[in-house]
């Protein structure tokens, strides 16, 4: 028992976060390190693990070159047809500037598409329900009650030379995404972080609740709910690392959560078999291991 207490005190003497990282290394350390963190530190660890799991998702999204404009402007997206492709094929593009050989106005049932027109015609078009307007250095999107989106072309814009509607839609998608990239990535990251944090909170506090219920047994030495939470977070360390590494290859949030959850279950099973959730059992195993080494 003295040897066990000495090991436990060594863990306690390590400063945060070193003591937490030390506690995630083995199932035995998961268990004996269950008392070392205060509530503020436990909450910090939850945020830290959540942030690690978010890294692959954010990296993948920042590398995306375009997203479907149709999800935000479905009516505008459907305005782009063969007539628009043919009209824009009469333009030339250089260093973010589009030159129109002649203006065009395409009135459609769902809205209007214009290109190379003067400012007055642009203003009139943007008063309509749905409008897609191409100017020399930017284009405008107006759909329903949504605010007008004014998108400045990138230096490599290419509105001409496309053979299909899909190709032109992809280029307009790219232009819109590049202009709004920072806002889109920040919004997406905030939403996914919040969702992932909520799932992690449910997982941690839910699993800790059941561990605490089991701790009411005299055979299990888990005396407080905080110990249960600390134990769960210790056990989550390695699964979160594995989920992070796999996420770099397959950045899918459902896969990341599945690896983390399955890994946590495996770690809890290993903790049980290695410790029986009992400090006396751990101390007994240490004495037996020491006696075997001494006998050898």
UniProtKB/TrEMBL annotation:
Keywords: Membrane, Transmembrane, Transmembrane helix. It comes from Jeotgalibaca ciconiae. The chain crosses the membrane at residues 42-61, 183-211, 231-249, 255-275. This is DUF1189 domain-containing protein. The keyword Transmembrane applies. It comes from the Bacteria.
């Amino acid at each position: 028992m003295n040897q066990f207490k000495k090991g436990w005190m060594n863990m306690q003497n390590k400063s945060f976060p070193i003591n937490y990282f030390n506690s995630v290394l083995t199932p035995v350390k998961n268990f004996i390190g269950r008392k070392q963190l205060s509530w503020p530190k436990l909450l910090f660890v939850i945020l830290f693990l959540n942030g690690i799991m978010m890294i692959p998702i954010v990296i993948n999204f920042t590398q995306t070159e375009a997203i479907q404009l149709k999800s935000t402007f479905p009516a505008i997206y459907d305005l782009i047809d063969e007539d628009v492709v043919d009209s824009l094929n009469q333009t030339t593009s250089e260093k973010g500037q589009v030159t129109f050989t002649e203006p065009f106005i395409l009135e459609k049932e769902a809205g209007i598409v214009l290109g190379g027109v003067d400012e007055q015609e642009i203003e009139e078009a943007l008063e309509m329900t749905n409008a897609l307007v191409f100017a020399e250095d930017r284009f405008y999107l107006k759909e329903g009650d949504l605010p007008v989106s004014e998108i400045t072309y990138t230096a490599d814009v290419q509105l001409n030379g496309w053979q299909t509607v899909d190709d032109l839609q992809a280029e307009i998608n790219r232009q819109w995404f590049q202009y709004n990239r920072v806002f889109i990535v920040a919004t997406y990251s905030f939403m996914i972080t919040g969702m992932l944090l909520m799932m992690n909170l449910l997982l941690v506090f839910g699993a800790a609740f059941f561990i605490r219920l089991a701790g009411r047994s005299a055979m299990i030495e888990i005396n407080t709910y905080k110990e249960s939470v600390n134990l769960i977070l210790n056990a989550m360390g390695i699964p979160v690392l594995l989920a992070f590494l796999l996420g770099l290859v397959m950045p899918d949030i459902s896969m990341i959560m599945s690896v983390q959850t399955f890994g946590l279950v495996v770690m809890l099973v290993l903790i049980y078999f290695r410790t029986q959730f009992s400090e006396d059992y751990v101390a007994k195993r240490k004495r037996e291991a020491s006696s075997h080494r001494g006998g050898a």
